[in-house]
Fold:
Amino acid sequence: MAKLLNNGYVNLVESMGHDQAAIRNARRCWRSESKGEDADTKLIQHLLRAGHKTPFEAMVFTFDVKTPLFVARQWFRHRMGSYNEESLRYCVALKDYYIPEGLEGQALTLWKAHNDQAFAVYEQLVSQHGLQKEQARSVLPVGLYTKFYWTVNGSALMNFLALRLDSHAQQEIRCYAQAILDIVILQAPISFTAFKEVMAFADRS
Ligand SMILES: Cc1cc2nc3c(=O)[nH]c(=O)nc-3n(C[C@H](O)[C@H](O)[C@H](O)COP(=O)(O)OP(=O)(O)OC[C@H]3O[C@@H](n4cnc5c(N)ncnc54)[C@H](O)[C@@H]3O)c2cc1C
Structure:
């Protein structure tokens, strides 16, 4: 499990397919099968440079993610994937919120006071005033941590990584993208090493 931010994480729950699935599917185009690591690596590099990405859909990953709501909101814009998130209609919100690294002094005191106050109001509204959780949650901050499962195929994951590793992406989501790349490179080393090389070539920064 990769621990991220002050209280988040990303963890690979399960996966299938990996390099061999992408190679198998791609080689169907040429009526062939795996030709050994060197030839397969060249094939993968060719697929990525040519944008022939459907073979990477044969590998699939499910991640367990804990991240602030504002990061999840950016994440969920990636439509090519499946999500199941903890519901604040059904579950009581936990006092667990994002604190940026390096925040100190008065700014930290103000940050904590505001978040603590929001949670205190939420708890009061639910327990003393009988508000439904689904309504009371609207007083909570967007730095509240949420948890979701994300199932994504290799091609959609590469799209996510290309966009969210980029220097234009917000740092808080970039660190998740980097942790995910570090995880999947161990699962499908040929594909994601080639992806890293192609990405470096296309870097806009
Ligand atoms: C740095 C950055 C800043 C951003 N800022 C904003 C912002 O200010 N406001 C905002 O609203 N969004 C913003 N976004 C979100 C962005 O517009 C995309 O929604 C998000 O990055 C998901 O990318 P995607 O559509 O490629 O991914 P996915 O939704 O996973 O789609 C993958 C691919 O499938 C195809 N696809 C999916 N759905 C369709 C469709 N309906 N029609 C055609 N092709 C489709 C496309 O080829 C797409 O690239 C930002 C993203 C980044 C990285």
Notes: The radius of gyration is 21 Å. The beta strands are 2-4, 8-16, 60-68, 82-85, 145-153.
